[in-house]
Amino acid sequence: MTLLNLSDLSVTLRVRPVLSHITLDVRPGELIGLIGANGAGKTTLMRAALGLVPFTGRASLAEMTPGERGRHAAWMPQTREIAWPVSVEALVGLGRVPHEGRASADEDRAAVDHALSTLGLEPFRHRTATRLSGGEQARVLLARALAQETPLLMADEPIAGLDPAHQIGTMKSLAALARDGERGVIVSLHDLGLAARYCTRLVVLHQGRIAADGPAGEVLSPALIREVFGIDAFYEDTPRGPVFQPLDILGPGPDS
């Protein structure tokens, strides 16, 4: 079963090619880390997959009606804006909108409760969302996506702005969602250490194309890290999981 299919997908924005001939499938049970340098096209790829920007080629989600897409894929964008001073519980409950008329009140309540519990947000349930810190708001918005209970979850930098403990906790929660075998998750990440440790598969974007696609141990080779990120790094599989550590910038550094 394929949850998302991109075939020969290309995007040009303001006459500038951003993505070129992307082919990618996402299946249940996968936690895919989308990695690459700034400007590689990670956000654009996910937005094109959802039909939010013009593209050529094929994107299976873009072929669905808005209602079908809302029940199939949940989307957490990079922008962390909460416009109204509503409670955390009410905001997370907005994830149930695509199921309106299709789910009971008890099912909606259970989905919200589970999302809050999964991300450790139960103590915030009755707090005003706009009064939370940026990191707390990011977790609330991810909880809204979880409450949507879709087969596919797409999140753009879901751990940005979180402290180390909540970064690890969030990645563990996403890994658990994928591990149940019923959902697929694709996230864009800049922390290659957490990507290597928790993602079942890494897709590397470089200059708008897929430069590598596979398990971390195969993808994070010294040669690829040098080419894509311009750094030297240390990678090792240990009994506690993969360890990735950036070591130095290749060539003149930013302070030279």
TrEMBL record:
Write out the entry's keywords from A to Z.
Answer: ATP-binding, Nucleotide-binding, Translocase, Transport
Superkingdom of origin: Bacteria
Pfam families registered for this protein in UniProt: ABC_tran
Q: A GO molecular function for this record? A: ATP hydrolysis activity
> Which stretches make up the ABC transporter domain?
4-232
Record Gene3D superfamilies: P-loop containing nucleotide triphosphate hydrolases
What InterPro entries does the record point to?
Answer: AAA+_ATPase (IPR003593), ABC_transporter-like_ATP-bd (IPR003439), ABC_transporter-like_CS (IPR017871), P-loop_NTPase (IPR027417)
Q: Which PROSITE patterns match?
A: ABC_TRANSPORTER_1, ABC_TRANSPORTER_2
Instruction: Describe its function.
Output: Part of the ABC transporter complex HmuTUV involved in hemin import. Responsible for energy coupling to the transport system.
Q: What is this protein called?
A: ABC transporter ATP-binding protein
